[in-house]
Amino acid sequence: MKSDTFPYPLQRIGIIGGGQLGKMTAQVAKRMGFYVTVLDRSANCPSAHVADALIVGDLYDGEKLRELASVSDVLTYEIEHIDTETLKALYAEGKRIYPAPRVLEVIQDKFKQKQLLEKAGVPVPRYQQVDHVTLEYLQQATLPLVQKARTGGYDGKGVAIIKSLADIDKVLPVPSMVEEYIPFSKEIAVMVARSRTREVACYPVVEMVFDERTNICDIVAVPARVSNTVAERAKQIAMQSIEALDGVGVFGVEMFLTENEEILVNEIAPRPHNSGHYTIEASVTSQFEQLVRIVCDLPLGSSRLLSPVAMWNLLGEEGYQGQPVIEGLRSALSIKGLSFHLYGKDTTQAFRKMGHITIVDESVTAALEKVEQVKTMLKIKAE
Which residues does the record give as ATP binding sites (predicted)? Predict the structure, then answer.
């Protein structure tokens, strides 16, 4: 039987990556009595303002990863682009790392990720590996199509939608996975928390709207405006995806919903996800607390939704770069049900994720109406 008595601090958590996801995880961990050390390239990263200790170094520096491991009881990460070889070696030596490095290694490569999901019977778009997308390839391909860099993509980067041969200049000059273009009716997502004992907590299905200029998530609405049948099927597919990975941690499963209500998995994030930020205000247990519970081998919390909610990503305005200036904050905070999150990044630039707002209300429609109001008020500019 596991001990129910804990010393203080409860455990030492090491977080690889000190951006906003690391910061929000660290905030929860500190509230719960854990000691947090973060590894990041920048001494002034968002997590530096919250963590107990900071190690400055590259996320691909094996020595820095080992330094973090040496002062931590357990490791987790807020970003996929890290040195898996060192993590695999540490894991083999007995270091607790969640999600496991083998899971991260699969997810880092979008082609391998799709192969694993397809083998497990998870519905995915048609895809193929293409080392070089050339004009000759496009001439024989079915257009439109989606080209994805096999590795390294994030926040809309590493993705190109090729609608016609005239888009040849959009082609990414990297080893790729090419997918059929899905004319979806909605992009939806489900956060799945899976513990070390394989207990699962599944969050409600959310609806995502993306900024067409950047392919970055703009708005998240919860619960998604879909039928109960679609919602239950989406949750089952999300859980099936994480079981296929045998993942332990918190995962964001992004999916397409087609006009005929077919659900296809787009991709998986092995960490807290933008589509789960709403859980801070609108769920019994946030995605960040859930991750802390999982990596420290504590019982899962409830994933129950407390209120309809909408989230809006606050991006840096075009044409501005430098020290951030928040415009319209007083007006935005006058809107009932609004919570404001600023990530603590010391410089802004066009479309950089600088913060987010959530609005809880009696209905998703009401929350979304208020989001549209806020979008006319709240801006991140620069001095």
Answer: 110, 148, 179-182, 187, 266-267
